[in-house]
Design a protein that fits this description.
By secondary structure, the chain is mainly α. 62% of the residues lie in helices and 0% in strands. It has one domain. The chain has 3 helices and no strands. Helix 1 runs antiparallel to helix 2.
Length: 82
Amino acid sequence: MDKKKLAFTKTNFILTAIGMAIIIIGLLLMTGPNCTNEYFEPDIFSVRRIKVAPVVTFIGFIIIIVAIAYKPKNEKEENDKQ
């Protein structure tokens, strides 16, 4: 298969992988103990779960959008790097 016909370059795949890793980290930051009917867990309102984790996840989605839209300025430079 000819590399010139591929829509994504190596850089696109690397940026996509980085974005996915950041999204997974953001989702892991949202996890924690849950509440039951007998016990209230105040940690569900922590700054990490309410503010930090959604921002980290959003940044991961932005990186994936940039990775999809990224196009090298000069295709010869991208091919020389590979």
